[in-house]
Write a structure and sequence with these properties.
single chain, 143 residues, alpha+beta, 5 helices, 41% helix, 17% strand
Protein backbone atom coordinates (compact mmCIF):
# COMPACT_ATOMS: atom_id res chain seq x y z
CA UNK A 1 0.00 0.00 0.00
CA UNK A 2 1.35 3.39 -0.90
CA UNK A 3 1.28 6.09 1.74
CA UNK A 4 -0.32 9.35 0.67
CA UNK A 5 0.65 11.57 3.57
CA UNK A 6 2.88 14.06 1.74
CA UNK A 7 2.15 17.47 0.31
CA UNK A 8 3.91 20.14 -1.71
CA UNK A 9 3.79 23.71 -0.46
CA UNK A 10 4.95 27.21 -1.29
CA UNK A 11 6.00 29.96 1.06
CA UNK A 12 5.00 33.41 -0.11
CA UNK A 13 6.33 36.73 1.13
CA UNK A 14 3.85 38.43 3.48
CA UNK A 15 4.49 41.85 1.92
CA UNK A 16 4.02 41.13 -1.80
CA UNK A 17 2.79 37.51 -2.05
CA UNK A 18 5.80 36.42 -4.17
CA UNK A 19 6.82 32.77 -3.89
CA UNK A 20 10.26 32.40 -2.34
CA UNK A 21 10.30 28.77 -1.23
CA UNK A 22 8.88 25.48 -2.55
CA UNK A 23 8.95 22.41 -0.36
CA UNK A 24 7.67 18.89 0.23
CA UNK A 25 6.57 17.75 3.62
CA UNK A 26 4.14 15.98 5.87
CA UNK A 27 2.51 16.80 9.16
CA UNK A 28 3.29 20.45 10.04
CA UNK A 29 6.42 21.02 7.95
CA UNK A 30 4.90 23.87 5.92
CA UNK A 31 4.19 25.84 9.12
CA UNK A 32 7.56 25.17 10.71
CA UNK A 33 10.21 27.87 11.04
CA UNK A 34 12.81 25.38 12.24
CA UNK A 35 15.64 23.97 10.15
CA UNK A 36 15.32 26.66 7.50
CA UNK A 37 18.22 28.33 5.73
CA UNK A 38 19.72 31.70 6.55
CA UNK A 39 18.39 32.97 3.21
CA UNK A 40 14.87 31.84 4.20
CA UNK A 41 15.16 33.64 7.56
CA UNK A 42 16.36 36.81 5.82
CA UNK A 43 13.43 36.85 3.38
CA UNK A 44 10.94 36.33 6.22
CA UNK A 45 12.51 39.14 8.27
CA UNK A 46 12.50 41.51 5.29
CA UNK A 47 8.93 40.62 4.26
CA UNK A 48 7.46 40.61 7.74
CA UNK A 49 6.68 36.91 7.67
CA UNK A 50 5.37 34.36 5.21
CA UNK A 51 2.12 32.87 3.95
CA UNK A 52 1.61 29.18 3.20
CA UNK A 53 0.06 27.79 0.04
CA UNK A 54 -0.57 24.06 -0.14
CA UNK A 55 -0.10 23.23 -3.82
CA UNK A 56 -1.16 19.58 -3.58
CA UNK A 57 -1.78 17.10 -0.78
CA UNK A 58 -2.46 13.39 -0.34
CA UNK A 59 0.63 12.49 -2.38
CA UNK A 60 3.05 9.60 -2.14
CA UNK A 61 6.67 10.47 -1.39
CA UNK A 62 7.64 9.85 -5.03
CA UNK A 63 4.79 11.95 -6.41
CA UNK A 64 5.52 14.76 -3.96
CA UNK A 65 9.22 14.79 -4.93
CA UNK A 66 8.31 14.97 -8.61
CA UNK A 67 5.84 17.81 -8.14
CA UNK A 68 8.25 19.65 -5.86
CA UNK A 69 10.96 19.43 -8.52
CA UNK A 70 8.56 20.67 -11.19
CA UNK A 71 7.50 23.66 -9.08
CA UNK A 72 11.11 24.47 -8.19
CA UNK A 73 11.90 24.54 -11.91
CA UNK A 74 8.91 26.83 -12.58
CA UNK A 75 9.84 29.34 -9.85
CA UNK A 76 13.64 28.92 -9.93
CA UNK A 77 14.55 32.61 -10.26
CA UNK A 78 12.65 33.69 -7.14
CA UNK A 79 13.54 30.83 -4.77
CA UNK A 80 15.94 30.73 -1.84
CA UNK A 81 16.08 26.93 -1.68
CA UNK A 82 18.58 26.25 -4.43
CA UNK A 83 21.16 23.60 -3.72
CA UNK A 84 23.40 24.68 -6.60
CA UNK A 85 22.94 28.41 -7.07
CA UNK A 86 25.07 28.54 -10.20
CA UNK A 87 23.29 25.85 -12.25
CA UNK A 88 19.58 25.64 -12.94
CA UNK A 89 18.39 22.06 -12.44
CA UNK A 90 17.12 19.97 -15.30
CA UNK A 91 13.37 19.58 -15.49
CA UNK A 92 11.59 17.14 -13.21
CA UNK A 93 10.79 14.94 -16.20
CA UNK A 94 14.47 14.65 -17.13
CA UNK A 95 15.42 13.87 -13.51
CA UNK A 96 13.30 10.75 -13.56
CA UNK A 97 15.09 9.37 -16.65
CA UNK A 98 18.68 8.80 -15.64
CA UNK A 99 21.07 8.18 -18.50
CA UNK A 100 24.65 7.15 -17.82
CA UNK A 101 27.27 6.57 -20.49
CA UNK A 102 30.00 4.32 -19.17
CA UNK A 103 32.31 1.98 -21.04
CA UNK A 104 33.56 -1.45 -20.01
CA UNK A 105 37.08 -0.16 -19.29
CA UNK A 106 35.80 2.38 -16.78
CA UNK A 107 33.53 -0.21 -15.17
CA UNK A 108 36.52 -2.57 -14.75
CA UNK A 109 38.60 0.24 -13.26
CA UNK A 110 35.84 1.03 -10.75
CA UNK A 111 35.64 -2.62 -9.64
CA UNK A 112 39.44 -2.86 -9.29
CA UNK A 113 39.65 0.43 -7.41
CA UNK A 114 37.02 -0.73 -4.91
CA UNK A 115 38.99 -3.91 -4.23
CA UNK A 116 42.23 -1.95 -3.69
CA UNK A 117 40.74 0.28 -0.98
CA UNK A 118 40.51 -1.70 2.30
CA UNK A 119 39.31 1.40 4.15
CA UNK A 120 36.18 1.35 1.98
CA UNK A 121 35.16 -2.16 3.09
CA UNK A 122 32.16 -0.82 5.09
CA UNK A 123 30.92 0.83 1.89
CA UNK A 124 31.37 -2.16 -0.42
CA UNK A 125 27.63 -2.87 -0.52
CA UNK A 126 26.91 0.69 -1.66
CA UNK A 127 29.77 0.65 -4.17
CA UNK A 128 28.59 -2.70 -5.51
CA UNK A 129 25.13 -1.20 -5.98
CA UNK A 130 26.63 1.68 -7.97
CA UNK A 131 28.64 -0.74 -10.10
CA UNK A 132 25.50 -2.82 -10.79
CA UNK A 133 23.60 0.35 -11.72
CA UNK A 134 26.28 1.43 -14.20
CA UNK A 135 26.58 -2.08 -15.64
CA UNK A 136 22.80 -2.30 -16.10
CA UNK A 137 22.73 1.09 -17.78
CA UNK A 138 25.47 -0.06 -20.14
CA UNK A 139 23.69 -3.32 -20.95
CA UNK A 140 20.42 -1.48 -21.67
CA UNK A 141 22.12 0.52 -24.43
CA UNK A 142 23.95 -2.34 -26.11
CA UNK A 143 22.24 -3.60 -29.28
Amino acid sequence: MRESKFYVYAHRRADNDAIFYIGKGWDNRAKSKYRRSIAWDEVCAEAGGFKIEIIASGLSDVDARGLEAQKIDEHWDSLVNKHRRDIKPVTAMARTKVRVDIDAELLTWLKDWRMSQPALAPFNRTLDGCIRFFRDQQEDREP
